[in-house]
Predict the 3D structure of the following.
Amino acid sequence: MSADSTADSTAEVFGSLPEQDDVALSRLRERLAGRADADGVLDVAYRTLDSPVGSLLLAATPHGLVKVAFEIEGHDAVLDKLATAVSPRVLRAPGRLDDTARELDEYFAGRRESFDVPLDLQLARGFRRTVIEHLRDIGYGHTASYATVAAACGSPRAVRAVGSACATNPLPLVLPCHRVVRSDGTLGRYGGGDEAKRWLIDLETTA
């Protein structure tokens, strides 16, 4: 059979198949996710959420929210890192993250000042974990300097380490590293981008 004949036959076969039904595919994925969860093999569930600071990737283990990632980080790259750092059993399963998505929507609408969802902090260890756990003590609408946070964490000279902890915070927004600024009042860098940090601070200070 010639190459042209093979190509024509292939086209006929695929042409006879029904177009992909996105709704049916979504339902199939939901069923697979539900079965995996019921069987105890859904180690990391994820979904995306549109927000005023761009698309967010949300991921959770059975213990709680483990990752919030900005689009600028590359969602596929983040999922690859989760597969290595947490478990290769990663599946799109929005249901596990419904509460997180709802609370984030409320936050962006100015109706929520803190988050109640359970957290899994396994991606932060040592001093970095100490720092990100302290972030919840910085009140809504307030900021603190890197030096102030370092002192509050018991290591007043570890200003750079605080900056590194904020830069690698696995749960931005929920653990508000955007509230940490430089001693001179300038914002400093932010994993979600400088514009996102300014937007978040403006949201909180004008609410």
